[in-house]
Design brief:
By secondary structure, the chain is α/β, with parallel strands linked by helices. The protein has a domain at 2-213: MetI-like (MetI-like fold, Orthogonal Bundle), CATH 1.10.3720. The protein has helices at 2-9, 11-42, 47-62, 65-75, 85-110, 114-122, 127-157, 169-180, 183-211, 250-253, 262-273, 317-324, 353-363, 380-390, 396-409, 425-437, 455-472, 483-489, 507-512, 517-525; strands at 277-288, 291-302, 306-310, 332-337, 340-341, 365-368, 443-447, 475-479, 492-497, 500-506. The strands form two sheets. It has a six-stranded mixed β-sheet with strand order 6-7-8-3-9-10, with helices on both faces. Helix 17 (455-472) links the parallel strand 7 and strand 8 (475-479). Helix 2 packs antiparallel against helix 3 and helix 15 (396-409) packs across helix 16 (425-437). The longest helix is centred in the N-terminal third of the chain and has 32 residues, at 11-42.
């Protein structure tokens, strides 16, 4: 035992540990840098960059590391590059690790739900903001276990540096055993050292997983508060969150529906007719792989007007909404929001993704998606306040105050610190509506806001939308299958089929006395949702 402990503390072995750590550090740091470049090339829109990165990956994943080390040490001098043995080993290890790290990074980025990216774009986030605030935080959390495994692998692979005479731990152990013939004690000591080093990596990995755990219940700040994508004012102390409120505020459940009378509708229609145009769509055409989705569609929406888009699935309702917000490109036609051609400059040329994002934020088009698309790593309050800070430049406390007001308005102030996965579907959709309202948009687009909800949760979301339409006079375009709701809330109904509007007119008139036979057939199928002849 004394001899075993002697080998563990020998300066000769300790120097070998130092060289092992140097090669490993060079390999991991270089691998991360090169991996970031490779991942960016593979995710690029330019096929040539992606092809080069894929070729590099095939070569370095398909050849043994030992050959790569020999090449870095013995072949590079033939082209005038002579590297010290440790640096050559670190370079080879970095080049070998880079493809694996690049795949980890790429899978982390691609693993972020695309709906969250669409939501970020709709909120006016530029590609850079999306990467820093939405993609990176979620991707890093998923990559920590894989990166910990890769770090352990790199530490063990550093032993191959002995092939180019780097006096790392394994080579020194071999040399010492050859001179003393005490193979068991020396290699057992060497193995224990490797186990301690890899164990330390595992401990660091577990600590990072714990610190990044969003579900961790603690009064201490999460590590995320200190990360660059948050940029929170840590010097200032935020106001404490309000105490838990009753499970469901009474005003959301007990208030009777706010349907308009026929006289109210007439007065409202006369007022809206005098308003300026908020959204104008002319001869809009869009096709996917030859399948026509929008076929010369025309639509005009005035300020304060609520339009309900009805029609069977695949009729083009969702595509129309995404085109209005320029989340989709179209083949022909023109869309103007507030008199501006969203996505194009004065000469008609398409804007860059960054410029389009800035224009979305300036024009003020909010959007609510059928799958909620909340940012999974942010709480309900952060989902609302974050975009206000990152896109519109509000201070932290001002953004938090606005978020608190909106959460109270939709009856969720008691769930401000809950993550999306801890909220019911109805609660998630109400948070999504509050997020879309936060920057005071001029137009609110709602894409089937209740289609992903259980029937018992539909009412609470519809009540929030009903209040926005009747109390606030917000301009809204709503794609929905809730026929009775459309009758109560909408000023006008547009029935889509085959990418065109077959029929449009005052909501109650169209829904109770449709003129087009296709509209009549659709409403007969939706008979359980048809409104009564008299409006409450």
């Amino acid at each position: 035992m004394s001899l075993f402990l002697h080998y563990l503390s020998m300066p000769y072995m300790i120097q070998g540990i130092e060289l092992t750590l140097q090669v490993t550090a060079l390999g991991l740091i270089g691998g991360v840098i090169l991996g970031l470049i490779l991942a960016g090339m593979q995710l690029s829109r330019f096929w040539l960059l992606a092809a080069i990165a894929r070729g590099y990956t095939v070569i370095f994943r398909g050849t043994p590391l030992i050959l790569q080390m020999v090449f870095a040490y013995d072949a590079l001098p033939h082209i005038g590059i002579k590297l010290p043995a440790v640096l050559a080993a670190g370079l080879a290890l970095a080049c070998n690790e880079a493809p694996f790290i690049a795949e980890m990074l790429r899978s982390g980025v691609l693993g972020v739900d695309r709906g969250q990216l669409l939501a970020g774009q709709a909120l006016g986030m530029t590609p850079g903001v999306l990467m820093r605030r939405i993609i990176a935080p979620q991707a890093i959390r998923t990559m920590i276990p894989a990166f910990g495994n890769e770090a352990v692998s790199a530490l063990k692979n550093s032993s191959l540096a002995s092939v180019i005479a780097v006096q790392e731990l394994t080579l020194r152990s071999t040399q010492l055993a050859s001179s003393t013939f005490d193979f068991f004690s020396i290699f057992f000591a060497s193995g224990l050292i490797y186990l301690v080093l890899t164990g330390a990596i595992s401990v660091i990995q577990l600590a990072l997983e714990w610190l990044f755990d969003l579900d961790r219940t603690t009064k201490q700040r999460k590590l995320a508060d200190y990360l660059p994508w948050r940029r929170v004012d840590l010097a200032a102390k935020p106001e404490p969150a309000s105490k838990a409120a009753p499970p469901e505020p009474a005003e959301l459940k007990e208030t009777p529906p706010l349907a308009l009378t026929i006289e109210d509708r007439a007065r409202r229609a006369a007022t809206i007719a005098r308003n300026n145009v908020a959204v104008e769509v002319k001869d809009l055409r869009k096709a996917y792989d030859g399948n026509i989705v929008l076929d010369g569609l025309d639509l005009t929406v005035r300020i304060g007007e609520v339009i309900a888009l009805l029609g069977p699935s695949g009729s083009g309702k969702s595509t129309l909404l995404r085109c209005i917000n320029h989340l989709e490109n179209w083949d022909a036609g023109e869309i103007r929001v507030g008199g501006r051609k969203l996505g194009f400059d004065d000469s008609g040329r398409k804007l860059t993704p960054r410029a389009i994002a800035n224009e979305r934020a300036n024009v003020g088009v909010g959007m609510v998606f059928q799958q909620f698309n909340l940012f999974g790593h942010l709480t309900a309050k952060e989902n609302i306040a974050g975009p206000l800070r990152w896109v519109h430049g509000l201070g932290r406390f001002e953004a938090d105050r606005r978020a608190a007001e909106l959460l109270e308005r939709v009856g969720l102030s008691h769930r401000a610190d809950a993550l999306p996965r801890h909220l019911s579907g109805g609660q998630q959709q109400r948070v999504a509506i509050a997020r879309a309202l936060a920057p005071n948009p001029s137009v609110l687009l709602l894409d089937e806001p209740t289609s992903a909800l259980d029937p018992e949760l539909v009412g609470e979301v519809l009540e929030v939308i009903r209040r926005l339409a009747i109390d606030d006079g917000l301009t809204m375009i709503i794609s929905t299958h809730q026929v009775r709701f459309a009758d109560e809330v909408a000023d006008r109904v547009a029935f889509l089929n085959g990418g065109v509007i077959l029929e449009q007119g005052p909501a109650h008139e169209v829904l109770t006395n449709p003129r087009h036979p296709v509209t009549a057939r659709f409403l007969s199928v939706m008979d359980s949702e048809r409104p009564k002849d008299a409006v409450a």
